[in-house]
């Protein structure tokens, strides 16, 4: 019989809410805590504050099992054994560095509720050195609690599956007996994925913290690498999608994360590589990460190139043109619009005089709040009607599946810009569309 553990999850955003529901699904007794009363009320009522496939069902079944509850009061952590820190570390305004105020506030309010034998487990993405600093705080508070670092690798859109069946687990542990005690507790929490064969890497704090930012830096590098190749393809008439297929067949390279297009956005990759550069600078290792500045630049250049291409296909100007933007989320199967390349391009085109209408299957409400000056449509049909130009900027399945003939009936001019290399050029061209994409002839 597996042992059930009492678990606190502090911070019920994307990461925390999914983690809390998944921990309950694994059989633990879980309390989710957040300072945001509205979010807690929603979660307690079984409603997801964000769009994430599989999450609403899991939330509801975990609540129904009686193993999951939510609170705004940190005192609800008292008596639990394992306390996960899942609060956000956003980019600081006007700087590259991560803002640690939520981590620090969560830690300070947790400290008085810790007891001997408790384990605090950091999951947030943090500058290397944070775990050691927080471990000192736990020590100084004198409760006898321990701290471990256990970075999270879930992808939005696959958050539930990635949490229940992770590619790997990483534990950053203190040295000596304390490390052994912490490992035993984490093994208890993750008994199910471990017995399913999930690889485990046990390391020190700094290595565990670095694994997370190194992984995201590598993913960002892969995307910017293929987007740099797309720039060269554009200069030569070559096709970056074929190039990606061909190099991806080499298993040392692999095809995944080689989709050229508008580049990466979201709440993680862009801010993580910037925070990593900032931290490396503080550590005197900035030269080691100088390449990440280029990764960031290549990524941002794609957005400018997209607008240039729009101008090009519209005969030199987009002033007064009706432009339909399909997609607002930073990627499909998400309503997250943080640092969304699609919205950035939409806003640039509007600034340059186009009349832009944005639509998205899930992200319109979030987009409207963050970019109130853009115009929105509730459906693809409404967005494309009368358009002089259509852009696919987030590759939702419904845009991939769109019928060129049917869409063609609605638009004023059959011009399609595929910002994600998501459509079949031959199919659109056969229906009389001018089809252009990034990195493709
Ligand atoms: C990313 C990582 O993939 C997760 O492993 C990590 O846990 C997470 O950040 C995090 O740090 O929390 P996520 O931000 O959900 O996950 O999104 P990704 O699937 O990585 O996509 C990021 C961006 O890259 C999207 O804008 C996507 O459109 C773009 N992308 C991805 C490409 O442009 N090309 C590709 O080939 C792949």
Automatic annotation (TrEMBL):
Its EC number is 1.1.1.22. Gene3D superfamilies: Cytochrome c1, transmembrane anchor, C-terminal, NAD(P)-binding Rossmann-like Domain. It catalyses: UDP-alpha-D-glucose + 2 NAD(+) + H2O = UDP-alpha-D-glucuronate + 2 NADH + 3 H(+). NAD(+) binds at residues 34, 39, 89, 125, 156, 271, 338. It is an enzyme of class 1 (oxidoreductase). The keyword Oxidoreductase applies. This is UDP-glucose 6-dehydrogenase. It comes from Nakamurella endophytica.
């Amino acid at each position: 019989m597996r042992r059930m553990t009492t678990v606190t999850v502090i911070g019920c955003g994307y990461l925390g809410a999914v983690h809390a529901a998944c921990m309950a699904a694994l059989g633990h007794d879980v309390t989710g805590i957040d300072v945001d009363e509205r979010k807690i009320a929603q979660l307690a009522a079984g409603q997801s504050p964000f769009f994430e496939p599989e999450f609403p069902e899991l939330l509801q079944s975990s609540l129904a099992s009686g193993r999951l509850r939510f609170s705004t009061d940190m005192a609800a952590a008292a008596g639990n054994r394992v306390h996960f820190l899942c609060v956000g570390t956003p980019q600081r305004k006007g700087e590259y560095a991560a803002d640690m105020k939520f981590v620090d506030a969560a830690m300070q309010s947790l400290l008085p509720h810790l007891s001997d034998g408790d384990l605090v487990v950091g999951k947030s993405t943090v500058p290397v050195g944070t775990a050691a600093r927080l471990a000192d705080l736990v020590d100084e508070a004198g409760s006898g609690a321990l701290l471990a670092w256990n970075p999270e690798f879930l992808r939005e859109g696959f958050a539930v599956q990635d949490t229940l069946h992770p590619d790997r687990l990483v534990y950053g542990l203190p040295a000596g007996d304390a490390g052994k005690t912490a490992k035993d507790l984490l093994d208890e929490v993750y008994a199910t994925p471990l017995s399913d064969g999930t690889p485990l890497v046990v390391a020190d704090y700094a290595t565990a913290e670095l694994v997370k930012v190194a992984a995201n830096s590598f993913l960002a590098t892969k995307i910017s690498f293929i987007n740099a190749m797309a720039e060269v393809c554009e200069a030569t008439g070559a096709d970056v999608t074929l190039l990606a297929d061909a190099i991806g067949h080499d298993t040392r390279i692999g095809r995944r994360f080689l989709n050229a297009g508008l580049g990466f956005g979201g709440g993680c990759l862009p801010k993580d590589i910037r925070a990593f550069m900032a931290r490396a600078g503080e550590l005197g290792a900035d030269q080691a990460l100088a390449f990440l500045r280029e990764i960031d630049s290549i990524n941002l250049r794609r957005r400018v190139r997209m607008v240039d291409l729009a101008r090009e296909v519209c005969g030199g100007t987009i002033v007064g043109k009706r432009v339909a933007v399909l997609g607002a989320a930073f990627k499909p199967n998400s309503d997250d619009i943080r640092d969304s390349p699609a919205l950035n391009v939409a806003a640039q085109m509007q600034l340059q005089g186009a009349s832009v209408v944005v639509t998205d299957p899930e992200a319109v409400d979030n987009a409207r709040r963050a970019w109130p000056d853009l115009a929105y449509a509730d459906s693809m049909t409404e967005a494309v009607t009368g358009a002089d130009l259509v852009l696919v900027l987030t590759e939702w399945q419904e845009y991939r599946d769109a019928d060129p003939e049917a869409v063609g009936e609605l638009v004023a001019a059959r011009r399609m810009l595929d910002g994600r290399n998501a459509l079949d050029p031959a199919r659109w061209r056969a229906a009389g569309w001018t089809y252009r994409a990034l990195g493709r002839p």
